[in-house]
Amino acid sequence: MRTTVGIIGAGPAGLLLARLLHNAGIDSVVLESRDRAYVEQRQRAGILEQGTVDVLREAGVGARMDREGMPHDGIELRFDRRRHRVDFPALTGGKQVMVYAQTEVCKDLIAAQLADGGPLLFEAEALAVEGADTDAPRVRFRHEGREDVLDCAYVVGCDGFWGVARNAIPAPESATYERTYPFGWLGILADVAPSHDELVYARSDRGFALLSMRSPSVTRAYLQVPEGTDAADWSDDAIWDELDRRLAVDDPAWRLARGPITQKSVTPMRSYVHEPMRHGRLFLAGDAAHIVPPTGAKGLNLAVGDVVTFARALVAATEKGDAALLDAYSQTCLRRVWQAERFSYAMTTMLHRAPDATAFDDKIQLARLDRLTTSKAAEADLAEAYTGFPL
Q1: How far apart are the C-alpha atoms of 151 and 8, rounded to whole Å?
Q2: Active-site pick, 95, 107, 279, 298
Q3: Which of 279, 294, 329, 352 is catalytic?
Q4: Which of 249, 358, 371, 388 fits a disulfide with 49 by CB distance 3.0 to 4.6 angstroms?
């Protein structure tokens, strides 16, 4: 097989890149190791930044998002039994975020790709990227029981942290930066209407809690739990009781709505960046190059930023013969990546209680939160970061 851009991975990054390239008249082939059902069902992110929403609309895959997604104009912070709303449009010149699950984004992009895009091969396992430092890189892959080769002009690795793309960058040229947190998130999906019309981020002496949603009838919620926790160790009643305690405020009118829990899982928390994000004709995007703790809602949105940057750069090289944007791909993406890492780290350390936290640490967290509620400048910095850094 031969194509201009070989894309490894059919998550939102790989699928969106294929769509952007198709709209620009550039051919691509997408290789995905899992089957279609798995890609369309795996639960991941649910918050889309303003820039991500705009890109999906411009790419022609935003119609269902606009019908079924839930625009949000802010979030609520809870701490010390107090509540404070951060008004995004007022602080950012009109920006919002959209609650629309990654599973739904993938469904929309898969449907568009299969309808009129280039080849999308499910259960096609990428085995290696070869010749990344030549003008003719190739991807060895296994599909339908036999090995094949995809010859490309460019390869984009959107295959996540455990994929093969990053391994094609020589170790002497690589640098990694990482922090692992001593806690994770116990996440649930529950068949009950959300208890609040916007996301609630709560800091308590018992740990962090997040009240979110997947739809007007489905609640998504998270609890900070110790690293290594097994979700099966938490009963439904214990989860709801703990959410009640951590979300508690001095407002008798507020109540946590409970319902049947349909899914439980534990997500580890880490920060990770690989530099550079390019080697020759190989480009990394999304989790293949960087991971953020989910507190800042940045993972999917960073991946979108990466593939938009690559698509724009390749269009410039193809139409104008100007490779400057391709040459600058890594440093362009990394500026945005490190700002997202900074914000996600700040949110995580402000809202989560470390196992060895002292009374001093508790007071510092409360002081940081109090600053957000009393300073428009501090509040605007949070709002600008949450709604998204420029693409």
Answers
A1: 13
A2: 298
A3: 294
A4: 388
Predicted TM-score of the model (pTM): 0.95
Phi, psi dihedral angles at 27 (to 5 degrees): -80, 155
Nearest of 246, 265, 267, 271 to residue 348 by alpha carbon: 271
Domains and CATH numbers, the chain: 5-71+99-178+270-347 (3.50.50.60), 186-269+354-387 (3.30.9.10)
Q: CA-CA distance, 289 to 24, in Å (whole number)?
A: 25
Is 386 known to be catalytic?
yes
Pairing state between β 282-284 and 278-279: antiparallel
From 201, 222, 264, 329, the catalytic residue: 201
Other Cβ atoms closer than 10 A to 36:
16
> Is position 222 annotated as part of the catalytic site?
no
Task: Write down the pLDDT at residue 44.
Answer: 73
Using alpha carbons, list the distances in angstroms from residue 386 to 74, 188, 209, 276, 359.
Answer: 9, 23, 18, 25, 29
End-to-end alpha carbon distance in the chain: 32
Q: Do the beta carbons of residue 188 and residue 264 sit within 8 Å?
A: yes
Q: For residue 167, which phi and psi values (nearest 5 degrees)?
A: -65, -15
Q: Which helix (H) or strand (E) holds 313?
A: helix 299-320
- Catalytic position from the list 72, 95, 196, 274: 72
201 catalytic? Reply is yes
